[in-house]
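Severity: low
Component: inverse-folding endpoint
Summary: output formatting inconsistent between runs
Steps to reproduce: submit the following structure tokens with default settings.
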């Protein structure tokens, strides 16, 4: 095992990892602990806005109730 061989292996590994990082889209990268904690913080609330249901005739928006698993309007 030579120092030149170790240096070449390290440089090749670094180049491969950096290219993989550049060409991988954010949606394909694994979630980090910070991503999971952010998601858990958002799910702590009871009501979540439903964006694909239009407002009702009274101008109220639809929310999904995580406790009762129903859609409610506020």
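Observed output (run 2 of 3):
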């Amino acid at each position: 095992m030579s120092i030149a061989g170790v240096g070449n292996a390290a440089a090749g590994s670094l180049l491969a990892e950096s290219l993989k990082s550049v060409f991988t889209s954010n949606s394909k990268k694994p979630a980090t602990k910070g991503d999971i904690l952010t998601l858990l913080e958002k799910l702590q609330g009871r009501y979540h806005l439903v964006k694909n249901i239009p407002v009702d005739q009274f101008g109220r928006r639809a929310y999904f109730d995580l406790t009762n698993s129903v859609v409610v309007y506020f």
